[in-house]
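[STRUCTURE TOKENS]
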Amino acid sequence: MAFRAGAPERPPHPPPLRRAPGAGTVGSDRRGGGHARPRGRHRVGAPARARRQHGPGGRRDPGTGRVPPRLRPLPAGPPDDLCHTVLQAALGIPNITPVGASFLITLREGLEVALVLAIILAYLDQRHEPGLSRPVWIGTAVAAAVCLVAGVAFHLVVGEFEGHTEQAIEGVLALAAAGVLTWMIFWMRGHARELRGELHHRIDAALAHNPATLAVIAFVAVAREGFETALFLLGAETNSASGGEVVVGGLAGLVVAALLGVALHKGTHHLDLRRFFHWTGALLVAFAAGLFAKGVHELRELFGIEWSVVAAPVWTITSGPLAKGSQVHDFLAGLFGWSASPERIRVAAYLAYLVPVAWLYVRDTSEVPDVVPEPVAADA
């Protein structure tokens, strides 16, 4: 070891001896035969001491005689969980992410459920059987509870996986959600005219045999929409910054859908459902395109495909509102699958889905009924 000229050499401090069984406390040369506590330049300064504390029970480690360092606190910032998101919404702190994909999904699916229930209840009123609405509400409540439990359970199970398994589940889940969502959009457009007649036929059959089967009709209708909603929300969670934001947006969409459903059933508000389903369907097509591209991205990473022809980024945005970390980025990512640095295969998958599906959607616009709620209001 080299020292400055003129400075007396100081012998290095010998390392402390480990305490033998039955010996005294380390750091005291009077009890355990060890060396005295280091002093001078070997002593830990005050700032360093302030960053340390005693371990569990305030004792030293029996093996090394050292004090365990304190675990550093988490960095300052809002926790990414449901409690923070709910508190943020309650305090009115602006955050546009929760009103993205999950709000749109539950608003549309919830309004479809409300429309089905309104048709059933209005037809029962028309047949002068308002007392039979109780089985309808029982079937609705049971279906909602089953879908809620199934959605939460599946979310918890998926959250337990990590690494390649998590990537595989997210990729398959995103692709499945995109496929089911596409089927739902076009099915609703093709069967909107027949929905009212089919429900009336089922209600007539139920009243002729056993009125209690009205609960089964309501259960099947609500459960189908509920399981679709759970699948879509799980898919939306793969593109969202946090699961709490998906939950808050989903609850907000359900509340709005319930209010609109009550207004439609009571006849206090007229909503052009043709236009509503047309524009929400268009947004859901773009959302499904983002899910499809997200699924392809996850599977590419899972199989380790790093060829530049598919894995090279098309663009990279590091600053501005479209960069990762901003609220605009999170909103667009959750709703449309936006990425600040997408690879070529992800952009290609997005366009490969969006272009043909959007063309089919626009071409079939004329097949949608003009106004759906008018027969419901007339029956009520």
